[in-house]
Amino acid sequence: MSESVWRDGPPYGHLAQELLAGRWRRLFAGVCDAVLLGVLTRPLLARAGVFEPMDPAKDFADFVFHLDWRWLIAGAFVWYAYHWLLVGYWNGQTVGKKAFGIRVVRENGARLTPAMAAGRALMTGLFAALGLTVIDLLWIVLTHRRHALHDLAANTVVMID
Question: Percentage of the chain with pLDDT > 70?
Fold first, then answer.
């Protein structure tokens, strides 16, 4: 399909069901991105003290209290920037999405703007911060158009590239 068709969306304004990325492709692309981000953020998390052994004489709250939050926030920023900048400026794809031949587009098939990609990444991070990642991703199985909750919030879909 020509690039001009996708810039403005498909002719009828709705992305056909057969062009949507499959659930397994999305899962494996996400795992690929998680591994890459794990490698990128590991030094930051190590500086924060996440990998230090926990003292059995102290409770978990004490362990969390003594973490260096500056490095945790830096790691969260790397994660956010990865998803925002790559999806916003690299044709709707992260490294994992590129490897599995899928990309994020608006509901009508048009390209995402960087601002929309920023909002989508923010919603994904919010669900993760609230401990709702499993529910966010499980939603892909429950919806006809394979939306995760962050896709619904950002009005996006993931399509075959």
Answer: 91
Q: Are 146 and 23 in contact (CB under 8 A)?
A: yes
One-letter amino acid of 119 = G
Instruction: Give CA torsion, residues 143, 148, 149, 155, to 10 deg.
Output: -90
DSSP state of 159: E
Within the chain, strands assigned E span 102-106, 156-160
Low-confidence ranges of the chain (pLDDT < 70): 1-15
| Entry pTM | 0.83
67 contacts 48 by C-beta, under 8 angstroms: yes
What is the rounded CA–CA span in Å between residue 69 and residue 41?
Answer: 14
Q: What is the pLDDT of residue 54?
A: 82
The tokens for 159 are 């399509």
Length of the chain, in residues: 161
* Distance from C-alpha of 4 to C-alpha of 140, rounded to nearest angstrom: 29
